[in-house]
Design a protein that fits this description.
Layout: H1 2-21, H2 33-53, H3 63-66, H4 69-103, H5 107-120, H6 128-139, H7 146-165, H8 171-182, H9 190-210, H10 215-227, H11 231-244, H12 249-261, H13 265-278, H14 283-295, H15 299-313, H16 317-323
Helix pairs in contact: 1-2, 2-4, 4-5, 5-6, 6-7, 7-8, 8-9, 9-10, 10-11, 10-12, 11-12, 12-13, 12-14, 13-14, 14-15, 15-16
């Protein structure tokens, strides 16, 4: 009667303890993982108890034979710990990083938490972009210099590491492409800027080869080609987006932006209007339409469009108009 009771206790206590002492596990993407971890520990504990209950080898056996069981059990427990508890601890540290950066506005503590999650689970590709994005956001306000360059190199290294760990995930080359696009403005000369924009376009192409129906990435690639000075390639990318989903309002907004930077304000106004026909509540559509009207010397219509954008955003219409 005691053995079934011991079996139940050994199987139930570990998951209960893990759940009780780790409340943050309730928010995990896979909330059942602590129970699998606890089940594995419980089975290992049961195996250890049953092994110790067995008679020892005869006295004539060597000392190594008598103690051979213990290293085997310890190795089993170490494997279970490595396969289950370390990923859980890494997830906890990653959640801590999100808490510090997104809610508490402590990027320094968030950086340490993200780094700790990578240290605990270096083969998990989804931890690296979080730290890379955090470093990029910090560089937005950093002064140029050796420290900024070192942080930029670290961010690029994290994005590249994620690409190597999961080459079939299209999000990783997109992150790397955005990195090159952001830092193209910090290039020392025109050739350096062109090289970074070309590298960004190559990463976008790699991601779209994996996920060719991502309309939002086609739109980003269109703008990237425009920055590269290749409007024909920008139009081709935008057309790919329109072929996938003609009613996606972001595609029409991107068309308006492309036409606006090329000086075709009338065409840009039509594109923004088409975007608002598909999504009348789109704040960016109203705002960009107002800017286009203003540049086209249509002040009354500009004021009306900017007022709609401000009302949708819950802001003062006059304030938005003065900032435009």
């Amino acid at each position: 009667a005691g053995e079934p009771l011991m079996l139940k206790v050994s199987l139930l206590l570990p998951p209960v303890a893990i759940r009780a002492f780790s409340p943050a596990l309730n928010s995990f993407e896979f909330p059942a993982s602590p129970y699998f971890c606890g089940l594995g520990l419980g089975m290992a504990g049961l195996s250890l108890l049953r092994t110790l209950d067995q008679p020892l080898p005869p006295a004539t056996a060597t000392r190594a034979q008598r103690w051979l069981v213990m290293p085997v059990v310890l190795c089993t427990l170490s494997l279970i710990y490595w396969a289950n508890l370390l990923p859980l601890r890494a997830d906890l540290w990653h959640r801590e990083g999100e808490l510090q950066t997104q809610l508490l506005n402590r990027p320094d503590l968030g950086e340490r938490a993200y780094a700790r999650s990578i240290e605990l689970a270096p083969t998990q590709d989804h931890y690296y972009p979080s730290l890379g994005d955090l470093l990029l956001r910090g560089l937005a306000t950093a002064q140029p210099g050796a420290a900024a360059e070192a942080s930029a190199a670290r961010a690029r290294g994290h994005f590249e590491r994620a690409c190597k760990l999961s080459p079939r995930d299209p999000d990783h080359p997109i992150n790397l492409g955005r990195y090159y696009q952001i830092f193209s403005d910090r290039a020392p000369d025109k050739d350096g800027r062109a090289a970074r924009l070309d590298a960004a376009a190559a990463e976008y192409a790699r991601a779209l080869a994996l996920h060719p129906r991502a309309v939002w990435w086609w739109n980003e690639l269109a703008w990237l080609h425009q920055l590269r000075g290749d409007p024909a390639a920008a139009d081709r990318a935008l057309e790919r987006s329109r072929l996938i989903d003609r009613d996606f309002d972001e595609t029409w907004i991107m068309k308006g932006r492309l036409l606006a930077v090329r000086g075709d304000l009338a065409g840009a106004i039509q594109a923004y209007q088409a975007a608002l026909e598909r999504n009348p509540e789109r704040i960016a559509g109203h705002f960009l339409l107002g800017l286009a009207y203003r540049q086209n010397q249509q002040a009354d219509r500009a004021r009306q469009a900017l007022a709609r954008a401000a009302q949708a955003a819950g802001k003062d219409p006059e304030g938005v108009f003065s900032l435009a």
